Amino acid sequence: MGRVTTRRPISHRTADGVVTRPDTLVVEEPLEIRVNGAPLTVTMRTPGSDIELAQGFLLTEGIVTSRDDIATVRYCQGATEDGVNTYNVLDVTLTPGVPTPDVDLTRNFYATSSCGVCGKASLDAVRLISRHSPGDDPTTVAPEVLSALPTKLRKAQKVFATTGGLHGAALYDTDGTELVVREDIGRHNAVDKAIGWALESRRIPLSGTVLLVSGRASFELTQKAVMAGIPILAAVSAPSSLAVDLAAQAGLTLVAFLRGASMNVYTRPDRVR
């Protein structure tokens, strides 16, 4: 399997002088996801939890809805010249009867911030494709539970502690019990890994849970929360306007600028007791 971190020599400069020493960096490598043998997408990710990443991606893109839709997930023999498997190509075989995605249409299911599709089309796409309705979830959470989550996430981010270069995503019960923590160079990948864990554990929809992300709350991350049936999304940084619009439409509670006892609740504040 691929390494999560690597070492590189650097010239460390301070007012006291220059020191040459090794520095620990997070690894970034491409992962190609294939479905039934056909290439679907390539994402730049940190190796680790790749099967969860692929499964979470397929769920949040609306290609699968449950673990039963997936027959197998295997690394392909994408090898280097010396015959060593790169572990950078995954092939997902769908259960017979599950439609194979149209590659030309798949990336139009949802418009991320880089796709250039208008906001209304983006919102309508999620509404039409999502099988779950966070708005129907009666979950509530105490503000002191939310306030404690960023510290819990930071303590659980082992690779971030050595590199400072990873995003984190974690799922919690509403009493603050940690369900899963995942890290990745891409914030969307970290969320897909956490959701993929839930899919593998047959916990979709993720009712009664809180998804915490270490950065901002973008439309893409909000869409992933809606697709997984998560009622509460919390972020330590700012939300985007489209993320707030989608959260309001889906009935998702969106909390941002979560820092200590301070937080902004943008939608469905009734869930924060």
From TrEMBL:
GO MF annotation terms: sulfur carrier activity; sulfurtransferase activity
Location in the cell: Cytoplasm
Keywords: Cytoplasm, Molybdenum cofactor biosynthesis
Cytoplasm keyword on record: yes
An annotated GO cellular component: cytoplasm
Record-linked InterPro entries: Cytidine_deaminase-like, FdhD
Presence of the UniProt keyword Aminoacyl-tRNA synthetase in the record: no
Domain of life per record: Bacteria
A Pfam match: FdhD-NarQ
Homology family: Belongs to the FdhD family.
Biological role stated in the UniProt entry: Required for formate dehydrogenase (FDH) activity. Acts as a sulfur carrier protein that transfers sulfur from IscS to the molybdenum cofactor prior to its insertion into FDH.
NCBIfam families the UniProt entry points to: fdhD_narQ (TIGR00129), PRK00724.1-2 (NF001943)
Record protein name field: Sulfur carrier protein FdhD
Organism this protein belongs to: Mycolicibacterium cosmeticum
Organism taxonomic ancestry: Bacteria, Bacillati, Actinomycetota, Actinomycetes, Mycobacteriales
